[in-house]
């Protein structure tokens, strides 16, 4: 597990190492924050592509981009909720476990929405837009997955009696 956590830190949040140090709560908070930033940038990127695609020749690509933007917006909202919940962890025992359960649920839902963005391009002909959006979405999914893994690791530490 230690090796997996080190890889997750190295691959997506290494720039925050000094702020995080050995605190699993801070590590999870920073990872979720990085996930939010990446998802927001991806949603903005897809929104810009979507506006241009409306005037293009491929209605399937335009539709996939619109759907992707919609589900990425949902993912951003879910990750934003996770960030807020992580910042406000209060109480002890059951209360904290409930709050962390919300974060796990929302981060998992965000990951599903990011998957849905990629899945929406299945019927789109191969091309630069499809390749670019799917590649970028896969990187965002990776960061979200890493954040969820770190949240799960923190939850496992909190659950220890």
TrEMBL record:
Q: Print the keywords alphabetically.
A: Signal
> Taxonomic lineage per UniProt?
Eukaryota, Viridiplantae, Streptophyta, Embryophyta, Tracheophyta
Concerning CDD domains, the annotation shows: PMEI-like_3
| UniProt cross-references to PANTHER family, sorted A to Z | PECTINESTERASE INHIBITOR-LIKE, PLANT INVERTASE_PECTIN METHYLESTERASE INHIBITOR SUPERFAMILY PROTEIN
User: What is the top-level taxon of the source organism?
Assistant: Eukaryota
Full protein name? Pectinesterase inhibitor domain-containing protein
* Ranges for domain Pectinesterase inhibitor: 3-150
For this protein, the record's InterPro entries field holds:
Invertase/methylesterase_inhib (IPR035513), Pectinesterase_inhib_dom (IPR006501), PME_Inhibitor (IPR051955)
User: Where is the signal peptide, in residue numbers?
Assistant: none
């Amino acid at each position: 597990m230690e090796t997996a956590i080190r890889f997750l830190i190295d691959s997506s949040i290494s720039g925050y190492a000094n702020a995080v140090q050995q605190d699993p709560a801070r590590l999870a908070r920073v990872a979720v924050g990085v996930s939010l930033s990446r998802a927001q940038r991806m949603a903005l990127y897809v929104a810009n592509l979507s506006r241009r695609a409306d005037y293009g020749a491929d209605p399937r690509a335009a539709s996939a981009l619109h759907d992707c933007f919609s589900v990425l917006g949902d993912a951003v909202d879910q990750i934003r909720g996770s960030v807020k919940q992580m910042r406000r962890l209060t109480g002890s025992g059951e209360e904290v476990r409930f709050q962390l359960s919300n974060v796990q649920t929302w981060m998992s839902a965000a990951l599903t929405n990011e998957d849905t963005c990629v899945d929406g391009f299945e019927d789109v002909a191969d091309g630069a837009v499809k390749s670019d959006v799917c590649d970028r979405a896969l990187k965002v999914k990776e960061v979200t997955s890493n954040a969820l893994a770190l949240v799960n690791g923190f939850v496992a530490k909190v659950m220890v009696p």
